[in-house]
Specification:
CATH topology: 434 Repressor (Amino-terminal Domain)
Radius of gyration: 18 Å
Number of domains: 1
CATH architecture: Orthogonal Bundle
Keywords: DNA-binding
Strand content: under 5%
Protein name: Addiction module antidote protein, HigA family
GO molecular function: DNA binding
Oligomer: single chain
Domain HTH cro/C1-type: 19-75
CATH class: Mainly Alpha
Number of strands: 0
Shape: elongated
Order of helices and strands: HHHHHHH
Length: 105
């Protein structure tokens, strides 16, 4: 069990583009162009999300949710989790050095 935990702890945070690419585009045989046309957005936006070059915005989340039958929260939660975990990894020492506010009794 410790080995599994160690492996999980070393995995990088999952970008929402990975989810889009691996769980939606590839299995459904969809091109970024087809998704973009259906969603009314530039093809490059879907390509850049799937390539993990940009994140999912509220607008993109609404459009992807409508097209794929998910919720916008699904996409935004992926984005939020990615950003928090990335920040946690990049600033771990600085975050650990912050002292919690002590409340008066």
């Amino acid at each position: 069990m410790a080995a599994e935990t160690e492996i999980i702890a070393t995995l990088p945070p999952m970008h929402p583009g990975e989810m889009l690419r691996e769980e939606f585009l590839k299995p459904l045989g969809l091109s970024p162009g087809r998704v973009a046309r259906a969603c009314g957005i530039p093809r490059t936006r879907i390509e850049r999300i799937a390539a993990e070059k940009i994140g999912v915005t509220g607008d993109s989340a609404l459009r992807l949710a409508r097209f794929f039958g998910t919720s916008p929260e699904f996409w935004m939660n992926l984005q939020s989790r990615y950003e928090i975990e990335t920040a946690r990894l990049n600033a771990a020492d600085e975050i650990a050095a912050i002292r919690q506010l002590e409340q008066a009794a």
